[in-house]
Design brief:
By secondary structure, this protein is mostly helical. The chain is built from 30 helices and seven strands. The relative contact order is 0.10. The structure holds zinc ion.
Length: 672
């Protein structure tokens, strides 16, 4: 079952012959560049590109020895790619506008147009026209290890060339690519339709615990419902939380009866796992109602594993999905991410915080308390007051858009910068919750999208708008004000989230309301530490599972299930059991991300840590100037970016320091 390797077209002897000839022609001082370029191009050269002689002729004709010619070629490639990617992005934005924006009912045409993707063949066309080979022959595709070792000595042009070449790191056959897309969509479909009918859950005594019509998606909805009871107590809250935990356990263990998933006709007792019809008169379904869901969850994950493994042979520099996720996408070595996560999991601050939470709850901790949310309190203002404050200032979205320069100036940008930013941000009404859509070429604009009720704006929409504004400001500085287009953006999603969090935190202050008090800031810090602790644990499970799959490529879904549960319990027993006083919980295996978006989870933890480092810096400095300076670093490695941003490495220190101070005060405050 080893995936088929690509057929080598150019054998090592031919490559060596080309290297020797080019070195003789251009001089031995170019030998190293020639060797690397020829090897890079040969690795991605397929039979349909021509035979070995055609490859040799291409290398002879396109190797650039002259530094000036090399620089001119790079400028040309960079300029053209900005236009290609920028315009394709604009077309895509236009095609999906009716889906993304609240512009009224959809036309049948809109759904068809949303499936049109003009960008799908660009990558393959770049190889077919040999543009990609010209780039591969002349510019290195760097590994993360090279960037970390050499990057500190690079100028901006070197960084730009290095980042530009990332797009040619992989050349994957269309059939292999399509298979990964198909499998990922099937897994996403599985996850997004996995609803639990809470109103059909019963206790062993036959009692229903949840209100009629409550239907929650696993795991997001289940988790949020559970967490909401800490701030908004409900009758039988603790029993409900325990029931939700039981549901989650049945899901990860795949003991859940398949028939109860999203089924309003069945009553299910997650405690005993018994199932019966709501209406005894209704015709019974075919087969055994209690038959368990036979490892579909793990079959979906294995499907993704097998599909991405077929990409491995086409990714010479990062030969596994794990390598690609950490070294190419995230740009932080796996070991370093792991160490960062453990620095939170193992911290004494987490143990002290657990003690504080136990005191507040007045009972021993239970596994679901990883979602304790009791620090999230917006006590000073009621939701109605907040809505009114927003409406007074921004009666509708148009008012928000026209007052953007004023808002940015109040946040701390100079009048000139506030105007310049506002001219590059378009405000749109979102159909969904909201998002910030960045531009891809410098003549284009970023889009701020937030959901507003018809005819007015409320606090929820404004709060999201402040979050998205943080993204947009980063996007505009890091694209429209960047020196090299190839460096546009930030190295990692965690970096842009950090800006968004910082802007969002200033929402009340911008409404002229009393901003964060010391008390809410302290509570906020403790909430972030607890969230980071939880997500760090889940991330370690995610990472452990991928290592296990690569170590056991022939595993069956049932074997994978046992492995995932084992890994989840190991992480729990090491980092949570000593704090919770409960062993062997498999709760950490519940995240749906783990099934569909493999190895994405660590970014949430990194985002929290980085946001903390940045918030501290921005509070102390000149807000507007600092935001601009940090964003304009562009897409270097996260490590170099963090050093430039906050003067130190990516670390948990800022969060743990603040948590220690907050704990000292909070622990001294008597409960109630
Ligand atoms: Zn965000």
């Amino acid at each position: 079952m080893t995936p088929p390797a690509p057929t080598p077209t150019v054998d090592p002897e031919t490559q060596e012959r080309i290297v020797q000839r080019l070195a003789e022609l251009h001089g031995p001082e170019h030998a190293e560049r020639i060797r690397r370029g020829v090897e890079q191009a040969a690795q991605r050269w397929w039979p349909e590109d021509g035979d070995a002689e055609a490859f040799a002729a291409f290398c002879d004709a396109h190797f650039l020895a002259d530094a000036e010619a090399l620089a001119a070629t790079f400028r040309r490639l960079e300029g053209v790619f900005e236009q290609i990617e920028g315009h394709l992005h604009e077309v895509r934005r236009e095609l999906t506008a009716p889906i993304d924006l609240d512009l009224g009912p959809l036309l049948p045409a809109d759904r068809l147009l949303a499936d049109l993707d003009l960008a799908a063949h660009v990558s393959e066309d770049l190889f077919r026209t040999k543009t990609a080979f010209l780039a591969l022959l002349n510019f290195p595709v760097h590994t993360l290890a090279e960037r970390l070792a050499e990057g500190t000595g690079w100028d901006r042009e070197s960084w730009a060339r290095s980042r530009f070449m990332d797009r040619f790191a992989l050349r994957v056959p269309a059939a292999v690519q399509q298979e990964t897309t198909r499998v990922a969509m099937a897994a996403e479909q599985y996850v997004t339709s996995y609803n639990i009918r809470m109103d059909r859950l019963v206790t062993p005594a036959g009692e229903r615990l949840f209100p009629e019509s409550l239907r929650l998606i696993s795991h997001w909805g289940l988790r949020d419902e559970l967490a909401s009871y800490y701030v908004d107590p409900k009758p039988a809250g603790l029993t409900r939380q325990r029931t939700i935990l039981r549901v989650m356990e049945r899901i990860v263990r795949q003991e859940i009866p398949a028939a109860v998933i999203d089924n309003p006709d069945l009553l299910w007792d997650p405690e005993t796992n018994a199932v019966r019809l709501v209406n005894a008169d209704a015709a019974a379904g075919n087969g055994d109602l209690a038959a368990r869901e036979t490892d579909r969850r793990y079959a979906a994950l294995l499907g993704i594993f097998h599909a991405v493994r077929r990409v491995d042979p086409y990714s010479p520099a990062e030969p596994t999905f794990i390598d690609r996720r950490f070294e190419r996408d995230r740009q932080i070595p796996e070991r370093e991410v792991e160490a960062l996560l453990i620095s939170v999991l193992d911290s004494p601050e987490v143990k002290d915080l657990a003690r504080l939470i136990r005191g507040r709850l007045g009972r021993p901790l239970e596994p679901f308390d990883i979602w304790y949310s009791g620090f999230r309190a917006r006590a000073d203002h009621s939701e109605a007051d907040l809505d009114e404050a927003v409406r007074a200032r921004y009666p509708d979205l148009a008012a928000f858009a026209s007052r953007l320069p004023k808002l940015l100036a109040r946040l701390g940008f100079s009048a000139e910068r506030a105007r310049w930013l506002s001219e590059r941000i378009v405000v749109d009404p979102a159909r969904g919750a909201g998002h910030a859509l960045q531009a891809q070429r410098r003549e284009d604009k970023a889009h701020l999208r937030t959901r507003v009720p018809r005819g007015g704006m409320d606090y929820k929409g404004y709060n999201v708008a402040m979050h998205e504004l943080g993204h947009n400001v980063e996007q505009v500085f890091s694209l429209n004000a960047i020196d090299h287009w190839s460096l546009a953006g930030v190295p990692n999603t965690a970096c842009t989230e950090a800006f968004a969090f910082v802007f969002q935190q200033r929402d009340l202050e911008m409404l002229g309301l009393r901003s964060q008090t010391e008390d809410t800031r302290r509570k906020g810090t403790l909430a972030v530490l607890w969230n980071t602790y939880e997500i760090a644990g889940v991330s370690l499970v995610d990472m452990g599972v991928w290592r296990w799959m690569y170590g056991h490529p022939e595993a069956t879904p049932a074997e994978l299930r046992e492995a995932v549960l084992g890994i989840a319990r190991d992480v729990w027993n090491r980092y949570f059991a000593p704090v919770f006083g409960v062993s062997d919980s498999d709760i950490l295996a519940i995240y749906s991300h783990m099934i569909v978006y493999g190895l994405y989870l660590p970014d949430y933890a990194i985002g929290h840590l980085l946001a903390f480092q940045m918030a501290r810096r921005l509070r102390e400095g000149d807000f507007g100037a600092e935001v601009e300076r940090i964003a304009r670093q562009g897409c270097i490695t996260p490590e170099a970016w963090a050093r430039g941003a906050v003067g130190g490495p990516l670390s948990a220190e800022a969060l743990l320091d603040a948590a220690r101070e907050a704990l000292a005060v909070e622990a001294a405050v008597p409960v109630l």
